[in-house]
Amino acid sequence: MIAAMSEHLSLPTTLHRENPSALLEAHFGARPAAHAEAQAHNPALRVEAIGFVRYRGDWLGVLVTPWRLDLLLLAGGGDLWGDIPAGQRRYLDLYGATLPFVAVDEPRLGPYQYSSLVDQVGRIPDMAAAREIALDALHSYLPPQPPPVSPPIAPAESVSRRGFFRRLAGKH
């Protein structure tokens, strides 16, 4: 019975070591037009992964498609991911709220979990508005990210007056 149950669990068989944005865009961008037509869709939107960052060791970001706008969680080896059966829901405490996430297991992509951000994508006027919704959600549900660390700038070498004139004369 355990073997039968494990076939339906949303297990992180694929740990995403690197940012999954390109993988998600390729996967969802390759879906046939018939899939989009089967669901309510918005032709003003296109597939775009927005703001994927590591949060507590796993990947969290927003995926915009012509048929959905969702907050996605992908396993990265951290403590945010939780194994649940595909199709089941769990509640996840994020920085700004507790959100419901539904498990999915796509054959080519592997398991992921999503929380719907917009019920009707037909009301989103364009990609700029979709990006704004995505960024607002990320700012609401993730703690502020520290600024990227820049390498320290080497202090300027102090040059004596004699050294200055030697360099000016072309004598190093």
UniProtKB/TrEMBL annotation:
Q: Which NCBIfam families match?
A: hydrog_HybE (TIGR03993)
Q: Which InterPro entries has this protein been placed in?
A: NiFe-hyd_HybE (IPR023994), NiFe-hyd_HybE_sf (IPR038530)
- The record lists the organism as Dechloromonas denitrificans
| Listed name of the protein | Uncharacterized protein
Gene3D superfamilies of this UniProt entry?
[NiFe]-hydrogenase assembly chaperone, HybE (3.30.1460.40)
**In terms of domain of life, where is this protein from?**
Bacteria
